[in-house]
């Protein structure tokens, strides 16, 4: 008789959300699994997960809360925050707007062999982890490029680096690093969300720095430390992420997409998209349409 596989973290989350992840990949024998989830407003209850999970808040509204003993947490997760969900602990989530997260589950037996794994024994919500976020974003970006042996090796190396970072634990993951209204990173996250909401706007460096209350040079340093990329790269990536959705979900002409998202020309858009996704916008649209059919 065939052995029935026990539900993993992703099975449980899919059942709770009523949908599969947008994209997923994993190692052989289930040692780790990485998924991207996009979900809209609502409250959700997750049963206890069999494996601990590292969660990175990629984009969406800056008002995601978790259930504490007697109510929703006062602290809210913002894009750029990380959370650790331990194995064996049910959790509740309140999402005030669209949520975009990446999860990395690591098999419990893998952690038992690690020299340090205490950080996975308790819930740690919405802490600052710039390196973990930067690695996660890089992995996610690679997953949308054409699959090749070289890409798979590179993604595997990135995930190994992220696992090693998780096992070591971020040096600055303390309560003092949680963004609050009085903390400068809150202003950075506000700017990040403004860019994600309207990537087509100019978002010039001087205006962004003034909004953060910093000089342009200092703002660039702080922003890159928080996101892993420069403000210009973040704006460009936000535009290309939006372009990818428009290519997938509509038949809008390339020239109109380029104009709508603030590119100087269709050729500028094509060059930037090819560098971002490894293929032209038209090839990307054609491949996605063939996948759906």
TrEMBL record:
Gene3D superfamilies: Homeodomain-like
InterPro entries: AraC_XylS_family_regulators, Homeodomain-like_sf, HTH_AraC, HTH_AraC-typ_CS, Tscrpt_reg_AraC-type_HTH
HTH araC/xylS-type domain sequence ranges: 186-287
Residue intervals passing through the bilayer: none
Pfam families: HTH_18 (PF12833)
GO molecular function, one term: DNA-binding transcription factor activity
Keywords for the protein's UniProt record, in alphabetical order: DNA-binding, Transcription, Transcription regulation
Highest taxon in the source lineage: Bacteria
Protein name: HTH araC/xylS-type domain-containing protein
């Amino acid at each position: 008789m065939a052995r029935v596989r026990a539900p993993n973290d992703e099975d449980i989350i899919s059942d709770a959300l009523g949908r599969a992840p947008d994209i997923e990949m994993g190692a052989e024998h289930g040692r780790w699994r990485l998924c991207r989830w996009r979900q809209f407003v609502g409250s959700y209850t997750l049963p206890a997960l069999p494996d601990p999970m590292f969660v990175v808040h990629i984009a969406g509204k800056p008002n995601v809360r978790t259930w504490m003993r007697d109510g929703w947490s006062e602290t809210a997760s913002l894009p750029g925050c990380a959370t650790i969900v331990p194995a064996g602990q049910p959790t509740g989530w309140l999402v005030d707007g669209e949520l975009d997260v990446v999860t990395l589950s690591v098999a419990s037996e893998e952690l038992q062999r690690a020299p340090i794994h205490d950080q996975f024994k308790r819930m740690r919500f919405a802490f600052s982890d710039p390196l973990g976020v930067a690695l996660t974003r890089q992995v996610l970006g690679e997953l949308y490029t054409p699959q090749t042996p070289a890409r798979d090796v590179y993604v595997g190396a990135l995930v190994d680096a992220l696992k090693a970072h998780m096992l070591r634990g971020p040096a600055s993951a303390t309560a003092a690093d949680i963004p609050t209204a009085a903390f400068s990173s809150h202003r950075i996250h506000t700017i990040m969300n403004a860019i994600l909401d309207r990537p087509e706007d100019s978002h010039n460096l001087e205006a962004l720095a003034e909004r953060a209350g910093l000089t342009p040079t200092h703002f660039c340093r702080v922003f890159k430390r928080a996101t892993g990329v420069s403000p210009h790269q973040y704006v460009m990536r936000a535009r290309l992420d939006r372009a990818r959705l428009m290519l997938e979900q509509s038949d809008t002409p390339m020239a109109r997409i380029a104009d709508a998202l603030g590119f100087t020309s269709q050729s500028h858009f094509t060059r930037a998209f090819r560098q971002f996704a490894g293929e032209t916008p038209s090839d990307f649209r054609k491949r996605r349409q063939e996948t759906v059919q």
